[in-house]
Amino acid sequence: MNVASAVKTVGVIGAGRMGQPIIGHIARKGLQVVAYDVDEGKRGAVEKLGAGWAATPAALAGRCEAILVCVGYDRELRELVGVLLGLLPRGTIVAVLSTVHPRTVRELAAAARPFGVDLVDTTVARGGRAADAGTLLAFIGGDEAVVERLTPVLACFSADIVHVGGVGAAQVAKAANNLVMWACLIANHEALALSKRFGVDVERLRQALQMSSADNYVLHHWGENTMAWAEDDMEIVQQMAHEAGIGLPQAGLNRELCRTLKPKRFKLDEYGV
């Protein structure tokens, strides 16, 4: 990579559960970081991490060569990009970490192109604990040259970075990840709840299953998942399936099961009652 094109100043929009540790890792790696969040109360925590604070997204726009976006939903993302376009210098990279519909990212990338702004998606997996440790898995979708410029930034907080294709491909990868993850979480509950009813030591069995063909990531991290985004994740999967004209009956069932599981997750005595 050309040293002159290296990203030195990074903006982060969204300083929540994932955004704050990401901000901290980037700052500790020696890059300049400027952050914004709708909650002004997060300013103190952000500044303790070594980052600057912007009062508005517009105030952040002209100060950064790359901007990581960690907002929650498609509508919020569209509104935000609408504000930023026209304010960003040509050559700025906007990287969407939010989990949204692939179509949303592709449409926004097309809207950004006439402004000379490169909008890509770079979704992350492995959850909050990995964000804290700086060991996230980052999927990235975009042109090779933009990916090359952005990769050193992603490496600040990711142990693994996978370029999965063009813009929108990272959203597809995250949807696939989420579909399998939530299916595993439900299957883990059913397997362990059944085993407990038959008097088996659940923790001993859980460790044994990690050595078997039933092994999965959420089994290793049993008890950690808040299921905060399960409903939204599965809604995106179903929207994508509908548009693709493909039936995903297990995904539809898992969406309903996640609704009932969330309030009593990891409470095996209550599962199935």
Q: Tell me roughly what share of residues is in helical segments.
A: 40-55%
- Alpha plus pi helix count: 12
What would you call the structural class?
alpha/beta
**Shape label:** globular
Rounded average pLDDT: 95
> What is the terminal separation in angstroms?
58 Å
CATH H level of the largest domain: which superfamily? NAD(P)-binding Rossmann-like Domain
Strands of the widest sheet, in order across it, are 3-2-1-4-5-6
Provide the domain count: 2
Oligomerization state of this entry?
A: single chain
Low-confidence stretches: none
- What's the count of strands? 9
CATH class label of the largest domain: Alpha Beta
Following the backbone from N to C, one meets helices and strands in this order, namely: EHEHEHEHEHEEHEHEHHHHH
What fraction of residues sit in β-strands? 5-15%
Reported by name, the CATH topology of the largest domain is Rossmann fold
CATH architecture descriptor of the largest domain: 3-Layer(aba) Sandwich
Largest pleated sheet? 6 strands, parallel
Radius of gyration equals 20 Å
